[in-house]
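Hello,

Following up on my earlier ticket. Below are the four sequence lines again, exactly as submitted.
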Amino acid sequence: MTWRTTVTLELLPSPIHSTQRGIAPAHHRCDDCPVRASALCGSLNDEELVSLNRLGRRRIVQAGQIVSWAGDPASMFANVISGALKITALTVDGREQIVGLLFPGDFVGQLFSDKTQLTVTAMVESDLCTYPRSAFEAMLDAFPRLERTLLQRVLASLNEARDRMLTLGRKTAQERVAGFIQYLAMRSGDVRADGTVDVILPVNRTEMADYLGLTIETICRQLTRLRTMSVIAFGASPRDCRILDSEQLDYLANPI
Amino acid sequence: MTWRTTVTLELLPSPIHSTQRGIAPAHHRCDDCPVRASALCGSLNDEELVSLNRLGRRRIVQAGQIVSWAGDPASMFANVISGALKITALTVDGREQIVGLLFPGDFVGQLFSDKTQLTVTAMVESDLCTYPRSAFEAMLDAFPRLERTLLQRVLASLNEARDRMLTLGRKTAQERVAGFIQYLAMRSGDVRADGTVDVILPVNRTEMADYLGLTIETICRQLTRLRTMSVIAFGASPRDCRILDSEQLDYLANPI
DNA sequence: CGGAACGTTGAGCATAATCAACGACTGTGG
DNA sequence: CCACAGTCGTTGATTATGCTCAACGTTCCG
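Thanks for your patience. The regenerated structure is below:
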């Protein structure tokens, strides 16, 4: 049994045929929320959480479904409980750029602004904990620690956005692709006994291209190149990636 | 007297031979601060400003001088009183991307984070109102309105950063250059009686290239192209730009 | 079996980068 | 005063990187 034939996709539900349907109960318990520690709510104590609890509604969005449209009034705010979403910007003639990815613990939504130029789409079935925007803004007034945590998150997002500007403005295709795999490995890679690292790509080739400002063909060619160089290998699915040579990958992502 | 020969550079002090030297008095009056309305401090009342006043120090930085180095401990926070600065990110081999421009009323500095990967450099002689980072963070605790204003600013910067990702990842050289001139016109253009708009480019060609993710030669060729098409014209200096055909410029920036 | 979505590979092309030369302007020092 | 160096901006010739267009393979369902 080789890596190439036996490894299966575990982390991500298939985008095509998700089985779960329906809407979670209106009120849920924050106590056993899987992202309580990592989400914004982590800055609140049990007592304060009760207020939030009353406001929050669970919402399950299917793969491909749009959560928030560019140009729409920004009326919602939400925490991601599970799944994966993309934030995209579009040119008038339809070229797409993914400007951010959202995973469990991240938040969605424009605050203090009536319109958004961005679209949020679920890439796989995702579970959101949503609040009316105005109610959440009121919570920020009431709980300074919540606001401070939000500020820190937004500052971190801004730093990440600026780092991505360097990638999009100045890096070659090879550096972008190698750097993306490296970033995913750092974020959620599984280091194995022999030093190789398993990474499940959370996006398909098209999304990878839209994230890195390249075309799908260029993504494929660069991945093939990395595979030919034995820097990475693929498992059963083209989303199961194993890093064979982290040092070389780092060099390709950040040459001299 | 034609536009091409008579218009002079007014807004920006020459980057080469600035005459003013020295350091402003340690304590200044916020009352007659030129950016009081537009800077973060605008959210404070007169009484609260007294506390800030005690902490702030004026600092004049010369053109080309670095205010904050990538990798340095982030110990300073400042408001821009006058001038223009750039925030840059660098690849390991020295390619540069300008990830943000700073003008009077904007703030400089990393908060709640011990290191920064970004470098801030004065493009022309600039006047800053600086605070020790820790002291400013304490002010945020004391004055919730200050923190709220900061949060709104950072959210706006994040939106701008994401918009720039679309430019850097998906737009052509023509769209980038036309869009940049359009952006400057919207921000600080001077509309004339005949409908043309005067814009003083706050950056030289190299900085324009580093901002738009292009080379200096491509910038020149695109500007020449716009000039040949009579969409823009240049005055005495290559930084004095006049928009002759705003409609066409908009079409070139956002085709179909 | 057939269609749809996704992924890969090839051939040719176009956009922007690279390399090079030159003009305008400014300040410096002989 | 003029020669010179330095910076900035412009233009030309050539190249290369990544895009476009096209074909085809695989997988998964209906």
